Amino acid sequence: MYGTLAKALFGEMLGQMEFYVSESKRFAVSVETRLWRLKSKYLKHLKELGSTGAGLSPEDVTPGSELANLVDRICSTWPWWKELHSFWCELPSYNPISVTTSTPGLDHATKASALFDESPPLDREPSPTSQ
Predict the structure, then answer these.
(1) Is residue 74 within 8 Å of 45, Cβ to Cβ?
(2) Which residues of 85-118 are buried (b: 16+ CB within 10 A; e: fewer)?
(3) What is the pTM of this model?
(4) From 1's CA, which of 7, 33, 99, 124 has a CA 20 to 30 Å away?
(5) Residue 96 pLDDT
(6) What radius of gyration, in Å, describes the C-alpha atoms of the chain?
(7) Low-confidence ranges of the chain (pLDDT < 50)
């Protein structure tokens, strides 16, 4: 993935094409490192916003609110916030704070466990692998 991004970014860039061709792995590592740094900084800012703010898209923030002021402060020190948050906010690996169940209080883990703990019906023949 990082190699593909590096090629899209640098493969056709005037003054970089020759160097890219000879050092494409270095370019891919550079892209990967930069994305990890951006993600790290993004996660730090999510913690500042807390669970409510982290789950909101930029257009859901009420102008003039305390949350809007915090977002403005983040944007003044980290200009990539609005663009990255607009598509990272819904990815659980980037924004685990905002990922919740649709109905609070449901115990999905217990229900899933119960499904796997159920015995097979008695009218079925046991599978050859279970003997």
Answers:
(1) yes
(2) beebbeeeebbebbeeeeeeeeeeeeeeeeeeee
(3) 0.62
(4) 99
(5) 62
(6) 23
(7) 98-102, 115-116, 118-124, 126-127, 130-131
Write the secondary structure of 8-32 as one string of H (helix), E (strand) and C (coil).
HHHCCCCCCHHHHHHCHHHHHHHHH
> 55 burial class (0-12, 13-18, 19+ CB within 10 angstroms)?
middle
Q: Tokens 């023949």, residue?
A: 125
How many whole angstroms from its chain centre is CA 3?
Answer: 20
DSSP for 55-91, please give it.
TS-GGGSPTTSHHHHHHHHHHHH-TTHHHHHHHHTT-
Identify the residue whose tokens are 């899933």: 112
Mean pLDDT (the chain, rounded): 76
CB environment 25-51: b (16+ within 10 A), e (fewer): eebbeebeeeeeeeeebbeebbeebee
Pair 129, 120: CB distance under 8 Å: no
Q: What residue has token string 């900084």?
A: 41
